[in-house]
Amino acid sequence: MDVKAAVAHKAGAPLTIETVSLDGPREGEVLVEIKASGLCHTDAFTLSGDDPEGIFPAILGHEGAGVVVDVGPGVSSLKKGDHVIPLYTPECRQCNYCTSGKTNLCQAIRVTQGQGLMPDGSSRFKINGEKVFHYMGCSTFANYTVVPEIALAKIRQDAPFEKVCYIGCGVTTGIGAVINTAQVKPGDNVVVFGLGGIGLNVIQGARLAGANMIVGVDLNNSRKELGEKFGMTHFVNPSDLEEDIVPYLVDLTGGGADYSFECIGNVNVMRQALECCHKGWGESIIIGVAGAGQEISTRPFQLVTGRVWKGTAFGGAKGRTDVPRIVDWYMDGKINIDDLITHVMPLEDINKGFDLMHEGKSIRGVVTF
Ligand code: NAD
Ligand code: DAO
Ligand code: ZN
Question: Taking the chain, what is the end-to-end CA distance rounded to the nearest angstrom?
């Protein structure tokens, strides 16, 4: 079939809206009509050329929601008409990672997904007979896409696509980092670096977990009001400080953060996030994705004296199990998504959506089809 997609032909170039040919679903695959897709910093990162796994031409997008239109042979958990959220971290429930109980990083289709291909090693997308790569197993910047069954979370039918698509990445990553990875407890002091689409969800996760101080750090003062709406108790703009930010935060939190979260992708900030943690027990969680070849550093004595460095992908969530629950939290009013979706636009305006992100004017832009 012919589908409408925003195609990334090469790093650094704007996306182009084109008609792309899409083959139907094969064994274990599902054809999904995408109704809405969020624009995440990670799509922009891949488009910039900084992503070591970036392959072109590709159809980017990994934060979508839509409806099942057709299923391939052997698909048993989904049927036509089901509402779904594609998962860039699948959940096969069978591989040794899934059954370990220690990680959400299912490896069942990891190799081909990293190559921009479906599990059988081929692509379903073509332009003029030439292969176009999938992205993160999702490719949600197209009005139809094909996704493996194990990479689809079935969600309730009354959830609005243009809101719950955000659960496909930003919401789950931020809230999950707090609840699954850090396991923040009531009364803990938390510091969040970077108050964008991920960091604000870390803040609402910390509030849900009953944190005491929730300190937000950002260079953009316009993030203060929104941060406070989501539960932030203190705001720090490092450029307004006359002293180094690390001793400032250690002092503010009465000895250091119980948990800190880096939600930017800046390796210097990652060091600050570790070093503002409490001696003896403070844990710092890296969420931000740094550019190709970049490295983190600290004095090993920071770890010897009890601080812990961790990272998290998709908030440690097992998507087929956890995503439908997070959709319920949204529908029950337990979490706020509406105030984070600042711009909704047709697919044709997707490049404007990325401009708004780069200018710091949007939290989440969403394209609809
Ligand atoms: P964003 O651009 O919306 O937000 C980043 C925020 O950081 C902005 O508010 C910006 O003003 C602030 N900032 C930039 N430099 C700063 C500095 N030096 N000090 C303080 N604040 C600074 O980005 P996002 O969508 O929230 O994504 C954040 C990061 O998380 C990205 O690196 C993205 O690739 C990554 N990410 C990771 C996962 C995962 O599973 N680990 C999932 C999604 C996104
Ligand atoms: O190696 O098993 C694996 C999974 C690698 C992909 C993890 C992606 C998480 C970070 C990228 C940001 C997603 C939007
Ligand atoms: Zn698995």
Answer: 16
Helix axes 267-275, 245-252, angle to 10 degrees: 40
pTM exceeds 0.90: yes
State pLDDT tens for residues 110-136. Answer: 999 999 999 999 999 999 999 999 999
191's enclosing H/E stretch is strand 190-193
Rounded Cα distance between 246 and 275, Å, is 7
Token pair 């998504």 in the structure block, residue = 337
Please give the residue that has the higher pLDDT: either 184 or 292: 184
Class of the CATH-defined domain 2-168+337-368? alpha beta
User: How many other C-beta atoms can be found within 10 angstroms of the C-beta atom of residue 110?
Assistant: 16
DSSP code per residue over 141-184? SBSEEEEEGGGEEEE-TTS-HHHHGGGGTHHHHHHHIIIIII--
Q: Which fold has domain 174-312?
A: Rossmann fold (3.40.50)
Q: Residue of the nearest CA to atom 18 in ligand 1?
A: 269
Cβ contact 327:165 at 8 Å: no
> How far apart are the CA of 68 and the centre of ligand 3, in A?
22
* Residues 299/173, Cβ–Cβ less than 8 Å: no
What are 18-22's contacts with CB under 8 Å, separation 24+? Answer: 18/127, 20/59, 20/125, 20/126, 20/127, 20/132, 20/142, 21/125, 21/126, 21/127, 22/124, 22/125, 22/142, 22/144, 22/145, 22/146
Q: Which atom of ligand 1 is nearest to the CA of 290?
A: 32
How much distance in Å is there from the Cα of 105 to the middle of ligand 2? 8
pLDDT band at 292 (very low <50, low <70, confident <90, very high): confident
Parse the chain into domains and list their residue ranges: 2-168+337-368, 174-312
- Report ipTM (2 d.p.): 0.98
